[in-house]
User: Fold these one by one.
Assistant:
Number 1:
Amino acid sequence: MAGGFAEAGADLELVGITKRFPGFTAIEELNLTIPAGSFFALLGPSGCGKTTTLRLVAGLEDPTAGRILIGGKDVTTTKPYQRPVNTVFQSYALFPHMTVLENVAFGLKRRRIADPLGKAHEALRLVELDHVAQRKPAQLSGGQQQRVALARAVVNRPALLLLDEPLGALDLKLRRQMQIELKDIQSDVGLTFLHVTHDQEEAMTMADTVAVMNKGQIEQMGAPEELYELPKTAFVANFLGQSNLFTGTVTNSGKESIIVDVAGTKIEVPRERAQRHAGEVTIGVRPEKLMLHTSAPKPTPGTNVIGPGRVNDVSFSGVSTQYSVTVPKLGNVIVFAQNMVFGPVVNDGAEVWLAWTVDHGFGLLDDPADGPRFEPDTDTKSIAVQRREKLEEELEEA
Ligand SMILES: Nc1ncnc2c1ncn2[C@@H]1O[C@H](COP(=O)(O)OP(=O)(O)OP(=O)(O)O)[C@@H](O)[C@H]1O
Ligand SMILES: [Mg+2]
């Protein structure tokens, strides 16, 4: 069904894009290529420049410097309505007095496209809402309205669909469901999706490629798994999931691996997984890669061991249990253990050693003196609430 629907998606290229607002640089020298037909996620904390990037692509802002190309064509000075782009914003603003069908057909009618209603029905079938075509938006749930907004954008067959936190208003379960549907729609119609989110799980489940943005720059970009397994900066290591990071001095830089002395404990990291091989470095390991031992494990080649430490918190979360362990001189270490047995493996206060396969470690590019630049913000809901409160304040002031 969808086969006849799509025109092919187009490449999007941002070349040296800079955006300065009076007294504030929101984006600095951004270079980015998104191949046609891909699902690309721009992930980053509040204020890092995601919406600004989308607005630049849509033509709602002019870049201070740089060029924007869609399908190889320079659109930098093109008016928004002349760009093959549609945007779905977080507040989806359907016309309340029109039916669902009229909402979806609206853009087609205005552009005098043939058979607007037929095409609108087709788009509604795509989001599985054709059966409510005659209802008004107020008679739909939030998630259904969201899907109508999506149908309204997709029906225009944009070569490039921009999604600015389109699922932010939905509850967790509905959001997960919509993520899967969005992904299906994208692969069905073959359009290029540029999806903006600050929800790392959403970015990882949906996108072919994720770019992690921080303070107007892309820190790292790649397939979700690649970014997760081999973060290159402390920001990425902590924004995308959690990490245990240790800073120490390289005491041995070998062909296969480096040895880092962290407050007297030697930790080995594969050379190819470390961005720096000398001096002071920060290294890390993901919490689910750690194994808990209640007695000192025998030293084995290919395994790092730290400890003993003391469990200071055990929190059960269904599929896994999170342990927080204080290791003298190394600090607090987080361990995720899958719940294979009933009850925790060790209790609060227990003495434990932590071990992991050398191959699972990674070494960062950061200067350890940099320190974390942002607190990770993974709580989408609280951000949505904060934003709403801010809007309400502004409304009251106005
Ligand atoms: N018109 C403007 N004038 C001045 N500064 C602006 C303007 N628009 C955005 N900014 C600033 O640019 C920065 C990036 O804003 P942007 O809206 O792109 O962030 P974002 O990544 O979308 O954040 P969020 O996740 O909160 O939506 C922010 O610090 C913001 O205050
Ligand atoms: Mg935004």
Number 2:
Amino acid sequence: MARDKHDVVVIGAGIVGLATAYEVAKRGLTVLVVDDHQPGWAASTGNAGMVYPAAGEPMVNPHHMKAGIGWVLTRGGQSPLQFSLLKLPSIMGWGFRALFACTQENHTRGKAAMQVLGADALQQFETYKQDGVEYEEHPGGFLSCFIKEKELEKIATAFSGAPGVEILTGDQAREGEPLLGDDIVGAVQLTEGFTSVYPPTVCTGLARRLLTMGVDLRTDVHITGGVRDGSILKALETSSGATLAADHFVLAAGGWSGKLARKLGSKTSITGGKGYAITIDDPSAKPGQTLFLNEYEAVAIPFDGKIRFTGFLELSGVNMKILPRRIRALRKVAARYLKQVPEGKTEVHWTGMRACTPDGVPAIGRMPKLDNLWLGSGHWHFGLTLAPPTGLMLAELITTGESTVDAGPFDPRRF
Ligand SMILES: Cc1cc2nc3c(=O)[nH]c(=O)nc-3n(C[C@H](O)[C@H](O)[C@H](O)COP(=O)(O)OP(=O)(O)OC[C@H]3O[C@@H](n4cnc5c(N)ncnc54)[C@H](O)[C@@H]3O)c2cc1C
């Protein structure tokens, strides 16, 4: 029977909301997860599936800022970073905050915090599996591929002597991955600290496990606002007119979190950073491991019966419009690194929004203005990897007021 009131309501059944519900339910609290779509339909479904905690760092980075201007000016439609001039006014406030936050000091501090947060992420995925969460995993390696000598030299120097890392020549890379084209000048092979998962299966696997734990999971529920009493959020308002009461509420609405926070009576600075994917079913060829197409920050990933290409960060506000020119550009990027872009039976084009904070660091913890509203969002490129530790941190904060990992650097009230 449906309850009138839950201990915790989680808004958003993306990977972050599902991981949070899992940790909260494990601690014996009653949980309701609501979403206006099926679990994991948004950013959590079409991403690259890389669980790579060591790569975690704020994407707001003085180095990226300089490189980003170069990308936009020189690479036109294939630049890893894209802006929509028409949409710029809607993200102006966020953009200024990002400019001010873009210092070396902030980046160093943010990276250190994200490394601590993600330290046990691989182990947490393993624990999910041991606890009956079923999903497709490819624990093989990660090959970062280069078409420019200068870029290869920079990365090879940075990784020189690191454990689990091997620098390959172009020929060695092609020998291991015959799909790579003649323009590859070298590659960095990673054999530790990484796994690849097929993202939709993690979401459906977690959603199924939640049901067996007694979690109430409701789809087709669109949250429109909140009923407040001073600094307490009493209930959520839905588009059907029903209200959902709880002691605590977790906002895990990905790229929509900023807009929804305002409707609930709080605030946060989160915008959408759109990425694109092409997934080809039954492809004529696929690599044996995840290939990072370094100069364009794109990825080619083999899954069971599929190959997926992902790439681009498009700052065009909160929207899910697929621009055909970006799909064409992603295909061109893939063609620069591969002998040929594989043909397949069907091809699915996709876009999804990364949730982007202005300082590049996730926002996890209590929200401003409302004592019982919590936020788990703003993970940029790392939301799949950092979902399990985010869920754990939120569950600990809600149930004990403290967390094993220092929550200070992630405090949503910093904006
Ligand atoms: C191209 C691309 C590649 C990526 N690759 C990787 C990778 O390899 N590794 C990695 O770690 N990360 C990766 N990411 C990032 C990762 O996908 C995201 O950080 C992560 O999926 C965010 O999950 P989420 O649960 O916060 O948001 P989402 O998955 O977007 O879920 C938010 C949910 O909130 C719901 N919602 C919103 N508003 C409402 C409302 N009003 N009422 C009800 N429900 C609502 C939505 O329906 C949605 O289901 C990638 C992202 C992109 C775009």
